[in-house]
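Before relying on records like the one below, remember that each one covers exactly one chain. Contacts with other chains, cofactors or solvent are not represented anywhere in the record.
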Amino acid sequence: MNAELWLTLFAGVVGGMLRVGVPFLFVSLGECLTEKSGRINLGLEGVLVLSAMAAFGGAYLSGSAWLGVLTGAVAGALLALLHGLLCTLPRVNDVATGIALMLLGMGLAFFFGKALIQPQAPQIPAIPLGNWSEIPAIRAALSINALLPVGLLLAVLLWWAFARTRWGLLVRLAGDSSLAARALGYPVGGIRIAATTAGGAVAGLGGASLTLFYPGSWNEGISSGQGLIAVALVIFARWSPLRCVLAAALFGGAGAIGPALQSVGINWGYHLFNIVPYVLTLLILLLTCKPGHVAEGSPGELSTTK
């Protein structure tokens, strides 16, 4: 390939990373917040799909993309709240409840979203950062989702909150030692419900990004398993909000390789690169989930046996 094709390919991967990585960023931040409190939410796929449908419907009915974003965040928070409440019941398993809520969220989204497959809704505005270049590929790659700066700011705020604020320290305490939290008089169940609900709202922003920016429409296969991938992504990020940014960029770039190859005329075998995010997920799980081994940074209370 000549220099122009290489530049186009590189711009396509970077642009795809910035577009595809945004839902990964919000969903991983939401799961990071949830797991920091000692609870795992495998229902994030349902949260992502339901919030994507709700955001699209909200934007379509109201005529405002930002009201759609708010609707998506609320829908994600409500489904996550249900997960948090159910998990406080005695002898209820987090993982089993999460799977049930995933099916519920997807079922609700598919049922109520039937009428939204054809219509078009207002889209989240793009921020053009490539106007300095005359190359169309670079200008397109640097036209970023307006929610991306929000996600980056949220990652920094969560990192700061976990390290410097009383609220963040309480979430970490509930996640590391529920006995210590209870001994100090703090309601562990309430802390986990609040963290799970907030995590669902953050993940809901990722769903809104799917239907209101890229790909910018509602269909029943919109998420492609990104909610489930986010669980592995948080493990890869070692439960650090700042590392979630890097992990989201990695997964976003991996998911953009196939379309970038197609954009430069490489059609044979390009679809094989679409499985790269799933291969990365399997590799992360194989490398980090070893019998008798606790991943570095894992909250002490995080367990599949609760």
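Residues 164 and 273 are 41 Å apart (CA to CA).
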